[in-house]
Automatic annotation (TrEMBL):
SUPFAM superfamilies: UROD/MetE-like. GO terms for biological process: methionine biosynthetic process. Residues 197-390 form the Cobalamin-independent methionine synthase MetE C-terminal/archaeal domain. InterPro entries: Met_Synth_C/arc, UROD/MetE-like_sf. It holds the Pfam family Meth_synt_2. It comes from the Bacteria. One of its GO terms (molecular function) is zinc ion binding. This is Epoxyalkane--coenzyme M transferase. Keywords: Transferase.
């Protein structure tokens, strides 16, 4: 991965807005219709997207997660749900759709998991149950559950993702391109009726996900591991767990991820940490300081994280006390998916500079808090990316003179 040697490089966290024709084609396919020329359409969409990123000034481009189906312009979950079309051993959990009164008794209790419960929901029940509040969009999904041995079946899908991005990056004249893939800990947040323990379930998912990781890296691309669960699980455990208990719970998820990453080149792996992409209050979030030592133990040289979100923006000061390990790179979010307000480039520059001053300018790549696709309107998303690149240019003048 390139470092910011003489200017602040830019990237984003993965998901980018889908075009109308791509959303329509995905909706048709989801309805069981055959879409003529689907492969060619997807390839062309990725090619156009990569060119638009480069024209906007994005240095480290991605495929926008275009191979992960979205059937409507607003979709908070495609980064996660895509894997259930690429794995065997799952069945629909018809009785488990978005039950907000589920209680998980301890960090290790995997009988009740997923997005079925949040302490944030309980603290702001009126807002969460008001359909006009803007917190959630659309009809809650029916999640799958694990009912048999897990096995990766997404070889054709990831091969298409890889081929489309590789061709698009080559055509755009860039080698710095990444594809996102799910972490075992995030994949495991569904009901389990097959594996005897949390550990067995996690390592089964690790073996599944490793196949996707290898496919991305073998193509010479950069791999981004998406793993909101490391921070976000904390909000889904009732009662609020003791910090050390939660960290023990989380370390097992890191062990499973590192098992999946064993022997793979850490200098081409970036890890995405966030507190979830829903537009809620987030008053029950765990602090970055509490989870950071665990995150730094992941076998990835780059870390992307939320640094513009108003619940976590102040946490840049953590880097005054925590030394960035040698070889690590930070991709802080400097524009956010959680607001329709487009950040001013001068504010973006300030956010970049204050982190660069603490960890070294060469160790910072400006990015987004989380994926913009499916969270804000496409016109707003691209305006945010333009503000990101303009802010990076301002920060470059401050940091390099």
């Amino acid at each position: 991965m390139r470092r910011s040697h003489d200017s602040v490089l830019t990237s984003h966290a993965g998901s980018l807005p889908r075009t109308e024709r791509l959303v329509a084609a995905n909706a048709a396919r989801a309805a069981g219709e055959e879409v003529e020329g689907w492969e060619e359409l997807l390839a062309a969409e990725v090619a156009d997207l990569v060119l638009r990123q480069r024209e906007t000034g994005i240095d480290l481009v991605g495929d926008g997660e275009y191979g992960k189906s979205m059937t409507s312009p607003m979709d908070f979950g495609s980064w996660w749900s895509y894997i259930f079309q690429r794995a065997e051993g799952l069945s629909l959990d018809e009785g488990g759709a978005w039950i907000t009164d589920r209680h998980v008794s301890s960090p290790g209790d995997t009988r009740l998991t997923g997005f079925a419960f949040r302490r944030d929901q309980q603290a702001f029940r009126e807002a969460y149950t008001d359909p006009t509040s803007g917190i959630f969009h659309g009809t809650p999904p029916v999640f799958p559950k694990v009912t048999g041995p897990l096995r990766y079946t997404g070889h054709a899908a990831i091969a298409a993702d890889v081929a489309n991005l590789r061709a698009a990056a080559d055509a755009a004249g860039t080698s710095d391109a990444f594809i996102t893939s799910l972490a075992p800990g995030s994949a495991s947040r569904i009901a389990n009726e097959h594996y005897a323990s949390d550990e067995e379930l996690l390592f089964a998912w690790a073996d599944v996900m490793r196949e996707e990781y290898v496919a991305v890296l073998d193509a010479g691309l950069i791999l981004q591991i998406d793993d909101p669960s490391i921070a976000e699980n904390y909000d889904q455990i009732e009662p609020e767990p003791a910090l050390e208990d939660y960290l023990d719970f989380t370390r097992l998820r890191v062990e499973a991820l590192n098992h999946a990453l064993r022997g793979l080149p850490s200098d081409r792996i970036r890890y995405h940490l966030c507190w979830g992409s829903w537009h809620g209050p987030h008053t029950t979030d765990l602090g970055l300081r509490d989870i950071l030592p665990t995150v730094l133990g992941i076998n990835a040289d780059a870390i992307t994280f939320e640094a513009a979100n108003v619940r976590h923006e102040h946490e840049y000061r953590v880097w005054e006390d925590v030394a960035l390990p040698d070889g690590k790179i930070l991709l802080p979010g400097v524009v956010s998916h959680a607001t329709n307000v487009v950040e001013h480039p001068e504010l973006v520059a300030e956010r970049i500079v204050r982190i660069a001053e603490r960890v070294g300018r060469e160790n910072v790549v400006a990015s987004t808090d989380c994926g913009l696709g499916g969270r804000v309107h496409g016109q707003i998303a691209w305006a945010k990316l333009r503000s990101l690149t303009e802010g990076a240019a301002l920060a470059t003048r401050t940091l390099w003179g």
